Sequence to fold (798 residues):
Amino acid sequence: MNRYMVLTGVMLKNFNLLNLRPGKSGKNPIRGILLSLLIFAAFLPMILGIGSLAMVGYEVLFEIRQEGLILVTGFSISSLTIFFFGIFYVMSVFYFSKDIESLLPLPLKPSEILAAKFTVAMLYEYLTEAIFLGPILIGYGIASKAGLLYYLYGTLLFLALPVLPLVYASAISMLVMGFTNLAKNKDRFRIAGGITAMFLAVGINAFVTKLTSSTTSALELQKLLEQGNNSYAEIISGIFFSNRFAVLALLNSEVLKGFVNLALFMLICMLFVILFLSFGEGVYYKGVVGISEASVKRKKFSETELERYGRQKPVLRAYTIKELKLLFRTPVYFMNCVLTSLIFPLFIILPFIVQPDAMKELQGLSIYLSGERGSAIALAAAFGISVFVTSTNGIAASAISREGTNIFVCKYLPVSYKTQITAKVLSGMSIGMVGTLSMLLTASVFITVPAYLMRLIVVVSIFGIAFSSFAGILIDLNFPKLIWDNEQKAVKQNFNVVLNMLVSVLVAGIPIFTIIALHFTLWMTLLTLVLVFGILDLLLYNILSTIGVRLFERIEV
Amino acid sequence: MIELINVNKSYSGIVKAVDDLTLTIPEGQITGFLGPNGAGKTTTIKIITGVLNADSGSITINGKNIRENPLEAKRQFGYVPDNPDMFLRLKGMEYLNFMADIYNVPAELRRERIKGLAESFEMEAALTDQIQSYSHGMRQKIVIMGVLIHDPSVWILDEPMTGLDPKSSFTLKEMMKTQAAAGKTVFFSTHVLEVAEKLCDRVAIINKGKLLFYGTMEEMRENFRSNGSLEKIFLELTENE
Fold:
């Protein structure tokens, strides 16, 4: 227990989410505070929106005595989100993080390392919860004029909720990693393991959704809803079955039933933690020992290899290729930056696997798209998608942070900062382009998109992708997170990525909203997007080549 | 030639890492840079190479100012940093070609050099593997090879012998001598005094950011009127501070 506390403490010291710690040369702390305020301000509308939505929902659902549905939604979506992203997180932190190498020689039990890492993971998930579940719990509490016990139970449930999804995510990761660690080429297998785990996660989600939707037909559901008395909460099943107790605890917080349910929920959590630790005690080291072994051929290079590698390339191209190679070869970067932009098409395909009937409904959409208004909306929407996909890959927004303490290499190479920034932007843009295109191509399998519209979409996406990448690297140049002990911290636990997502979606959202609200024609839409983002891109490019370069110059570790 | 004039650098405005340092490192010679741990050697080297900005003073490399004309200045030198853990996911071959691309080394020439360097550092069998599979010494070698591939006229090496096996260490020292004899500038830091004594034409000793001595080995012995080893003089110098 003592060792667990010490270990957790050390790991938390390195948490440093916001990169507030001043650097060696005494970086201005005001910037950090400014950044935190900015992030808070950016999230505020979302938090308030979700909170007030919960309050409005309460009023509506209270009429049919199903207000518990709000809590059900809050807990279910939070669990699913934590589970899904937990896989990526656990993979990176349990297996790929650099501290593993220094922890293994210490006299620690696998379960102690796991427990400490799990705790840090829990803390990280609270941030996710704070944005979604937090406002729902508070909104519901205000609307239902709940008592003190409700808030107490709510807090406890909030704190314990990530246990189940994280245990699932950890179990899947440990199984996959235990298996892939047997392989010779570790990096490649680890990436394959990551992909497998992701598909498992998506598959399980789809399976669970299908299972619940088939057991409760529409008719039954209607009957259930008509019953009132929050009967809906009773049918929660599947892998997050314990959420049922959470909801019941909150619905009955004033009576004993509430306490019993809370106790049940906590008991299940504890049981899962114990199971997880004893399972991990046996399995964890199988996956983690030797994790840093690299594949080795040790074979003398041939003339053809010398020839192939040795072709002279222009500096910008060489630098961009280097960036891309590192993205594809570093498992954490591959999973978080490359893979995430390639999973979006899955979300399109998924509904059709779960509900094959949905196919028919799409025919109507295809006809709509060939019309004037439909094509305008499609163009605007596709533009929005391109911005979203690019900003979620986080490549540009973590381009400087990913260098870590090796940023010094950028400083002595005789390559201008402008060229380096451009290469980093280009690597982000190319993955953004691949992500956008794969999404559009997948969509076009299900919906007939006219060829001219497809071409226009490609044109406007380039503007969107450039915008998101420019904005991303500008943010990262301002607040680079260079001190990290595992790569995960450079990409996922980096608020620059989140900030860029918010900024990108916000800036792209306003014109899209205008286009749809004011019934723009297709050509007006095209003109608006190209003009607005053409100017914005130009402006950002200019800022990057002047202020951006100066910011890069000033970065010191 | 490297020229430092009145260079100052402090961390957080309090700790002075480099204190009014003026130093001219001539071409055609090997200059050793000595000092105890934390004396400011690495900081000085980082300032010369443009990794850190000096608070004041001027630094020129072959007459090109690192602040005013950074790209030209950076093209003059090859730099071996104290920690070779970089570009770990690139293959050795990819790294060498990346450096060659950055320094515009023509294809023919680089292939020739890669072959030659791989042979003299016994790295032929490792170049198609990723650098992360290399031992510390091998990483050190690949970084040194990355410098040699563009054949710079100024060599700046931070603790280059650390982790090298005897043969590679010997190879590197021979290369340093050849370079100096060919009229190039060789500047390296070390705390291995025997190496400095045997290899250097000149030594600069710093402590707490201040230059304590700069001159040839003979000048040093004369100056301190001692026939003692460099070790003795070094200890005397740095302890009396």
Observations:
- The mean pLDDT of chain B is 91.
- The longest helix of chain B spans residues 166-181.
- The beta strands of chain B are 2-11, 15-25, 30-34, 56-61, 64-65, 77-80, 154-158, 185-189, 202-207, 210-216.
